[in-house]
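Troubleshooting entry. The earlier prediction with adenosine monophosphate gave an output that would not parse, so I re-checked the input for stray whitespace and re-submitted. Clean input:
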Amino acid sequence: MSIPPGSTIGIVGGGQLGRMLAMAAAQLGYRCHVYAPDEAPPAAEVAAFFTRGRYEDEAALRQFGREVDVVTYEFENIAAGPLAAIVDEAPLFPPRRALEIGQDRLTEKAFIEAQGGRPAGYRGVGSRSELDTALAELGTPAILKTRRFGYDGKGQVRIDAPDEAEAAWAAVKGAPCVLEAFVPFDTEFSILLCRSSRGETVTWDAPHNVHRRGILDRSSVPTDAALAPAVEAATALAVRVAGALDYVGVLAMEFFALGDAALFNEMAPRVHNSGHWTIEGALTSQFENHVRAICGLPLGATTRAAPGVEMRNLIGDDVHGWAEALADPAAHLHLYGKGEARPGRKMGHVTRLIGLGDS
Ligand code: AMP
């Protein structure tokens, strides 16, 4: 089934990912309808239609589903009821099962193991005493993460010694958690894959990612040649995962590289910050291929467009350096149109193509 240009794509979530999706969709002649709870979300500024509604409002999501030809999302924490309301009305991609697995760190890790992947050592933790048991088994340092609603380092507490358990448990407010062994990784990288409803699968160069305070700071390609075995194993896992889920759209999987091993960290059933470099740095961006995939169109080539590409996030006050970014002729500036530059808030990004002419 193909959804031709001129149709309307529904996007649940109104942040920068939705904004860049809507821009790519417009280029292909689609209209986008954004659904988000905020008054003036970044995605709505560049979309044809906007519905302001809560993610819990089943009736509003059902109506939204009726008004579009296909639904995708950039916000993952949609509860089961509202999700069912959308699925009743319109095709949803990536598929519901991918969303449900990605919403829960414990389910996600078990699923990845079943596909032959290897996460860092972990234990499910549902009570204070289970936390003590898990700490005794995994040792310290370890990281306590809430099973749900965590992103950009939120809902995470590092535990360096067993006597910090009490404070960590208080910090997560007793929410269901996983305890993860701390991985002394060499580097972090991600796999960006796109699978279409026709079953065609492509991947981009795996970016090397650097985080600052739990938030992605920089992604660059190509990665060091020494990472090749880890990237190869991780890519094979991503292809298996996509196949098992009958996946449609962009899938991002984050890994820790430790020697030749790729330890799975987490997956996101959506376009991903570590793929922003593909807008100028690849022949087809993650956003365009996501649109092509969910609409049943052929996928575009993912070949790198320059010998090297580096993407740097503008977080919080970094955004005030926008003029400096523009002064660099090899840099592409993206601003998300967000008002206040709060600490930790992703305000924009800058991509540099390296090794072309004088850059
Ligand atoms: P997450 O939201 O789980 O991706 O965590 C954000 C960042 O925190 C990761 O990209 C890592 O830089 C760091 N981190 C998370 N879990 C671990 C771990 N088990 N070991 C070492 N670093 C971690």
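This one parsed fine. Residues 120, 143, 150, 153, 180, 182-183, 188, 211, 214, 254, 265-266 surround adenosine monophosphate (CB under 6 Å).
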